[in-house]
Amino acid sequence: MNMQEHARILEVLEPVPLPPAEFPPSVIVRDTPREELMQRVRDHAASAGLAWTEEHEAVAQWLFDFYSHCCDAPGQAYTDIEDYKRYLKCLKDKNCTDDGEQSRACAHGQLSASEATNAYRVYRILLKAFADKGGKAYLYRLFPLGPIFTLHLLAQLPRLVHDVDPHFGTAY
Known about the structure:
Layout: H1 3-12, H2 25-31, H3 34-47, H4 54-69, H5 81-92, H6 119-129, H7 136-142, H8 147-155, E1 164-165, E2 170-171
Antiparallel strand pairs: 1-2
C-alpha cells in the first residue's frame, strides 16, 4: 500500500475522536449488534477500496469479541512495576496462565474498560492472539495502517489513546 492509498483511506474514512471516558470502545461494541458492526466494517472497507477477506474478517471478529468479553476487568492488571514486568513477559509467552486462572474466553489477557482505551495495551494482546499466524507481520500485511487504527476507522469506533504517533512512526 503506497502513500496515495493511505491518503485515500484517511480521506474516505475520517477518524472518530475519542468520546468521554464513560463510553470506551468495549462498551460501544458490546451494545452494538455484531452483524450491524460487521456490515459497517465491510461497507467502509469497500468504500475505501480495501479488499476485505476472511482473514480480515477473523481479525475484526476477534477484536470485537475481545472488547465484548475481556474488557470488563475490575481494575488494572498490575499494581506496581514488578507486576507490570510480569504482565509484559506473560504477553510474550503464549502458555502463560496468569497465575493459573487462564480463561478460555480471554486466553490472551483481560483489560479494564479504561485500559482498553490505550492502543498499545490492546495491540499487545492482539499480537499474542495472532502469534501463531505470524503476529506483527501477519497483522500489518492485512492492515498496513495498523490493525487497531484501521479496524476502528472501518467500524467507526472512537480512536484509542496513542493509536498513531507520526513523530515516532508508530501506528497500532
